Structure formats: structure tokens, C-alpha cells
Amino acid sequence: MKTLRINHLIAFAFLMFLSVTAGVSPASAQTPDPGTTGPNAVTREEYNYGDSVFQPSGFPIAVEVRASIHYPTTLGNGPYPVIVFMHGRHATCYRNTTAALRWPCRSTEQPIPSFQGYDYIAQTLASNGYVVVSVSANGINAYDNNVNDLGMQARAELIQHHLGRLNTFNTTGATPFGTKFVGKLNLAKVGTMGHSRGGEGVVKHYVHNASLGSPYTIKAVLPLAPVDFNRPVVNNAALEVILPYCDGDVSDNQGVHFYDDARYNVAGDTGAKHTVQVMGANHNFYNTIWTPGMFPAGTADDWGYVTNGSTDGHCGTGTTSKRLTSAQQRGTGLAYLSAFMRAYVGGETQFLPILTGDAPPPASAQTTNLHVSYHAPSTATKRLDVNRLLTATNLTTNTLGGATTQSGLTPHDLCGGDSPQPQHCLPSTQSTSRQPHTVASARSTLRGLSQLRTGWGAFGSTYTNDLPLGARDVSGFQAVQFRVSVNFSDTRNASNIPQNFSIVLTDGAGATSNVRVGDVSGALFYPPGTVGPVPKVLLNTVRVPLTSFTGINLTDIRSVKFNFDQTGQGALLISDLAFASAP
Amino acid sequence: MRLVNNARRRRGWKSILLTTSFLFLFSACSSLAFAQDAPASTPDSDPTANQEVTVTDILKLKGRVLGEGSNARAVGQHKVASYRVEEVTLPRMQDVKIKGETRSVGKAFRLTIKGGPFPVRAMPAVIWLDETAIGYGIENEDLNEITVITYDESTLTEGATIYLSYGDKQNKEDRTALPEKLKLNGAKGGNQ
What we know:
The complex is a heterodimer of chains A (about 575) and B (about 190). Chain A is α+β, with helices and mostly antiparallel strands.
């Protein structure tokens, strides 16, 4: 009997341990790592039809049609989803250690194979059942500054041309592969990733493909450290923008415009949107061909482009800096690109919690120092916008039509959006490169993200959004969420110390439940760095599970209150208050 | 504008409507015809009507040197050394926008910064004269020159400081100044 009782106790303790563990992070306990090698052996080949064989419209020269293709060696379980990569702007030719920008290269030179720089991701994706094509765009790089849109239409057309080639491989077959790929490519399941200028290129391609009647079904678009010169927009496809905090090239992280611009652009938008802010990451290390020590010419740690950049405490080169090694940085690319493509192109939805932030970074990311944003699809079951914070009206009446009130907050205004809002949210003494959401675009006059600029100087200041009749049942959603950044330019935030406050939900009976943001999210970090483009204000999503709010009736929530009760003073930039669920 | 005013005087309200319609159609056609390979726009000279003489053309045309520096040692974060200013005679007149006004011009001006090797970056180079961003630069093949094209000779100010930066044309923070000021040797050209 005694043994039995002890066994019961052990079993009970074990069950309690399991339930507590699951309660802490149920998603992480169930979320596999998308960056691990899959079961398929992989073959890598290239096709190359010549250096000057495709003429983009209005472009000064004809460009190359060359790409690598990674695929499951047996091609046994096709058709496989197709992922297309496009590299960014870089030198195009080299001889010994000297790089040049011309196309075609001289006979004494070799092309710089920038398209090979993502093989480490292609290999893993292919091992998990994807065909990955990485396109060379050297010809465009050599002349894109000569054209008004800085080469984006040309990039879009080049991707479309390659998809046409893949379609031929898939239907009739063609050299150099014969009929190997006939019936093996699923061009109704396509994902695109573009790095740097290639990032805007894949967005422009999405628009271009749509303008042609969507002959290929682009399920997911991933701009990696992208520029956004012309402000094209992706709607009704999944979007993930990866933003390196220590980007020394696109140092203003302007690619966040892709996320911001897409949010409320189309009613009923079915596409989920994500950003990943990778702390300690630069621009170039995502591409091995651009990484010092991995290729003989044209490489750089781009953070070195920043004046006095080496002295920065976060992005610099000192022993206490928080820079990622190139291998770590590739880990973040591998993990988040794989999670995104596998979830949205391959339908492997088990990876979604990584993208929404409900699960921590997987081991393959090689760092936990990153932050995500998530904007749910615009459907009634996925997202209920409480306050989009787009116009001055939203300071008193929220998107649902409920009252919005505040006490003790100053300033409490909107900034960054369309006129008459001020163009930027930080004082004019702050560089625009520290304000990604509002930095100007080279070829567009569009303004940036409308944000609530607010701050408090005493415990207990509040910001409250009431939910009107008809919008009070939030029980079908997983979380209440918003985007936020600590406003480093406001001295009420103590340097290098995270902020904190409470979210309070109140129900129809007057019962309340509160959750401290700092207990569920790392988004209230103080942006690190002191040199050049850092620190910077980039808003990340705080996503508080509704299961964290206890003792209240989630079918009758009357208000969402931000109670600034954890610190005596502070200042934040806020957007996108909503109830939301995973895609 | 003078043509429009004359029409108003001669033909009255009916002509105003006709003229307005024409201008509207003309401007719509101009933006539709906006060439891909077109001169890079700048705050003060936006050559949106140039479909025929492209940036690529202008970069290749022979120029007349109006001024040139001599410093050979690259300095600063962006490794700038010297400069060259050239006047380029266009093969045909071009309609361009200068300070918001459409003008027909027969000359372009190339301002080239020498130094490097310049990195090939995602963010375009910006060339400045004093506090004016002349426009986005274009690297040459050997990456030791970056050139900006302008049609507005009034920006070529004797004694101006020449800067190079990258990215946002509103951001003056990370500019590198050339060691030499702009000298035109009294030979300024002519979009008169």
C-alpha cells in the first residue's frame, strides 16, 4: 500500500511537472525546429542559358538567365512546392581579390555568384521536400541605378521569366534537365525570398505576377533586409520581413514599410504578416558570398560602413558587443525563412507559433535575441481591430466605435502617418535612420506608420479602449496584442532598462484581470546602441494570451486598459491594438 | 504658362477648358511614358520626360570638363578623394523639371566623385553640394567613381562643399566631405 501511495505521489508530481511546463509555453513544447535537415537526400544543379539572353522591359541591357536548383534527389514524392530566391545588389565580377560592377564580365574576370550565397537554406528546405531555385541577377545589379525604379521591374520580370522556365521544366521538359522535372514542380505553391534590393524585387514580382493574372500562385513573400524604394505592397499572400538591427547598408530598416503598408490596405486580406527583428545581425552575413572569409572579393561586414560603427556597444566590434557571428546570423535566416516557407507554402502549420511569437526561437536560429511582429489575416475569426490608431479620431474613438480615453499621459498624439501628423515621431535631432517606420523612400512620397506617441510621468496613468456592444465577445481569439517600442529619445525611459506596464481587461460585471507585459513579452526592451543608426525605434508585437486573464468573462469584455503601474515614468510608440488568433 | 495666358486672352473660357484638358492629357501621357532607363530624378531637376536620352546614354557621352580636383588620397568613411564636373551636350533637346518647372534643355552636367573602391550597396549613393542633395549617384565599372547627373546648373556653386552619403536624402548625418571645394574655373555651361 505504501509503495502504491509513493508511486501515486511520484506520478502526481510528474503530471504536475508536465502541466506546469506545458502551461509556461505550450507552443514551444509542441513546435518542432524548421531549420533541421529533413529526410530527403538533396541534389544541387545549375542551369545557365547565357549572360545576355533576357531583356527586361526598358532596361539598358539584356541579362543572364542562370540559377541553381536544389531538389530532393529521388524526386519521388512530387510535385514539390517551389521556393525562388533572389539576391541583392552587389559587385558582379571579380579577378583575384578585386571586384567590379559591369556586365557581362571581362574575359579575365569571373562572375561573382551571389545567387549561391543562400545554398545553406536551399539545402535544408530541399531536404524537407521543397524545390529551391536561386536566381542570378548580376546584369540587373550592374545597371539598376541607371533606371528610375532602381531595377525593381527588371527584377520582377526576371523572376517571372525563371518561373516560366520552371513551368517548361514541369510540363514538357527542357535542357539541361530533359524530362527530369516533368510533373515534379508545384507552381501553384510558390514562395519567394529576396535579399536587399532583391527584397523589393520579390514584392514587385508579386505585384507583377498578379498584373498578369497570377499564372503562378505566390503563397508567401519574404523580403530579407530589404530596401523599399517604390513602396509596392503584398496583399492576400503571407509576408515576412526580416530586419537586421545592425544593418550597415539598409541601415534605416526601411523594409518595415512592406509590413506597415500592407496591414489595412485591402479589406478581407487573407495574408498574415510578420516581421523578425534580429538583434546583432548585419546586412551581408545572410549571403555567404558576401561574407568576409567565405569569398575572395567584394565581401564586407557592412556595419563597417557606419562612421565610428566599431565603437558601438551593441553593433560594434568590442568584446562586449552583441553582434552575431556570421554562422549565428545564418542560423536566424535558416530558422525563420524555413518556418515561414514551410508554414505558408508547404502548409506545415506546426511552425506558425514561431512566426507569431507564441513559441520561442528554435534552436537552429542560434540566438534568442530577436523580436517578432504578427498581423493576423483580416477575417472575422482571426482579427478584431480595437484601435488601428490611424487618424486623430482614434485618439477619442477607436476602430470599433468605442470610447478611447487616457489619464496622465503626455504627449498623447499620433505621429508618422499622413499629414497633418508630423512626419517623424522622434525629435528632429534624431537621424531618420533611427526611425524605420517613417524614413522616406527613394522613389515614393508615401508617408510612414501612424503611431500613438505617449508617455507618463507618474504611476497609474492609463490608456483605455472601450469595446462597444456587439464587439465584446473576444472568447474566440487567442490573444490581445499590439505593437510597441520604447521611445529611447524620451528621457523618461531609463537607458538600457526595459519598460513594463499592465494590460487590464474588464468584463460586464466589473471584474478585472491584469497581466504584466514584461511577464509575457520582451518587446519593451530599451533599444541598444549609441552610434549612427542605432538605437532605433522598431515596433514589435506584444501578444498576451487571453488564457492569461483569469476570473473574467471573455464573452463580455468592456474595455482594454494599459495601466502604467510598473514604472513611474516612461514613453512608448504604439500601433495596431487588436484581438487576434494565429493564421 | 505664357502660352496658356495668351490662349485665355484670345479665346476666353472655352479655350481655357480646352487648354486645361490638353494639359491634363499631356501630363497623363508624360507619366505613362516615363522611361525605365531615365535620368535619375533629383529634388531640383526631375527629368521625367526623358524617354530618349537615357542615363546610360548620358554617362557614355563625351563631356567638356568644367572643373576638376587633384587630390589623390581618399579620405573619410566613404573614401572620397576628388571630383570632376563635366558639361554634356545632349543629342537633342530634353524636357526636364528644374525646381518644379518643366524646361527644355540641351545640356546635362555630370558631377563625379573619385576615390574608392566604393562598395556596391543596396542603398544608393547621394551626392551633395553644400546642403543640397543633387541626386543619387551611379558607380562606374571599376568602382572608383560615382557620378550624378543634373540639369540644373544653378546647383553647381563655386566653392561648394561636395559630400557623399548613402540612403535617405533627408539624412545629412553620415556624409563624408571631399577635401577639395568645387571649382569651376569660371567655365559654367549653358542651359540658359
